[in-house]
Write a structure and sequence with these properties.
With about 120 residues, the chain is mostly helical. About 75% of the residues lie in helices and about 0% in strands. The chain contains nine helices and no strands. α2 crosses α4.
């Protein structure tokens, strides 16, 4: 996938609009629109880094599309494609959950299980 496609995919996964990305990255909406158009212009390295940071991914992933798949497949090579997409979609949430204490994680897992049962 191209830079443009990877950015669009990440925006979609996060339910984020270009306007929000503009605010988070400090790049004007017009400039972002230019990057995401059919006849796309390529961002500067500085802007690519800002976009990646705002989306919570690496610049390498936005440029190549390979890093997230490679990392997830390395950790869990048996995951089907659907689960890989879910892992990518919720990657930032998983990272945040991983950073909280184990007792809080256990409580959250219990709450989620209870919600599923209702």
């Amino acid at each position: 996938m191209s830079f443009k496609e990877n950015v669009k995919y990440e925006l979609d996964c996060r339910g984020m609009m270009i306007k929000e990305l503009a605010i988070l990255s400090g790049i004007s909406r017009r400039t972002l629109d230019n990057y995401l158009r059919e006849n796309e212009s390529q961002p500067t390295v500085e802007n690519a880094v800002k976009i990646a940071k705002a989306l919570g991914v690496t610049t390498e992933y936005l440029v190549t599309g390979n890093e997230a798949d490679k990392n997830v497949k390395r950790i869990a090579p048996e995951l089907p494609e659907f689960d890989l997409k879910l892992c990518k979609k919720y990657y930032s949430t998983i990272q945040e959950l991983n950073a909280i204490p184990d007792n809080a994680k256990n409580l959250l897992c219990k709450l989620i299980s209870e919600w599923k049962e209702k």
